[in-house]
Amino acid sequence: MSGGGKSGAAAGRRPFVVGNWKMQLPVSAAAEIARAIARTLPPLPDRDVAVAPSFPALLPVAEALRGSPVQLAAQDLFWKDDGPFTGEVSGPMLVETGARAVIVGHSERRQHLGETDAMVGLKTWAALRAGLVPIVCVGEQQDDRDGQRHESIVRDMLLHTLESLPREAAETLVIGYEPVWAIGTGCSATAADASEMHACLREALKTLFGATASRIRIVYGGSVTEQNIDELMAQPDVDGVLVGGASLRADSFVRIAAFGAPSR
Ligand code: PGA
Predict the structure, then answer these.
(1) Is residue 178 flagged as an active site residue?
(2) CATH number at residue 57
(3) How far apart are CA 139 and CA 184, in angstroms?
(4) CA 155 to CA 151: how far, in whole Å?
(5) Of ligand 1's atoms, which has the minimum distance to the CA of residue 22?
(6) Domain tally for the chain?
(7) Is residue 194 in a domain?
(8) Which atom of ligand 1 is nearest to the CA of 183?
(9) Enclosing domain of residue 64
């Protein structure tokens, strides 16, 4: 399936580069890397750049990013706004830390914590209620791709996750396409594979949200590096990237975030 649509910029979609630090960094290292990113990132007024530290690092990283355009994101939230939910963190609490966005439904949470499409849907709505930008992750397993089922699997995941979302909330959404076999493996999807899936996801978004679908950003994640960023970002439906391993060093994350910039 071809993208067929306008490029992201032509459709008004600002590129979004998000570093997902997972549980990989001690709090002190997270703050230090955030300071280095804030100090070295060149001015990039045409795009959004964010980092997603673990919960205990949110406040120190917010402090480290103060005065810089780099946004703070979280890696998860609970679907209730308050109450007796030991160990959980709500959308309003994340907003208090300065977070502007939150990853939901990452495949590591689906795999290790049993998160279902329905739970991810509730979390997406909780994020939107709190005024956070949800980055809703979907992606297929290696078996699904080998069996040529990847498009239908990922489309169904997206439809089930977002089916009860109010239509008017859709514009703020960000979708993360993250093939599970590409995460942390050094084996990224090709730009052509990513482009094909992003176009397929945009078609699915049209069935849910009509014309608003053309304004929803779809970012790619899975072994994004300085080497493949330019080719990925050249695809018409790839509106940004989620970066895991390569975001753990300030210099490589800054070079990825500055894709296409002459001074890179
Ligand atoms: P990776 O992780 O870049 O290390 O593959 C991406 C992600 O899980 O978001």
Answers:
(1) yes
(2) 3.20.20.70
(3) 14
(4) 6
(5) 8
(6) 1
(7) yes
(8) 5
(9) 16-257
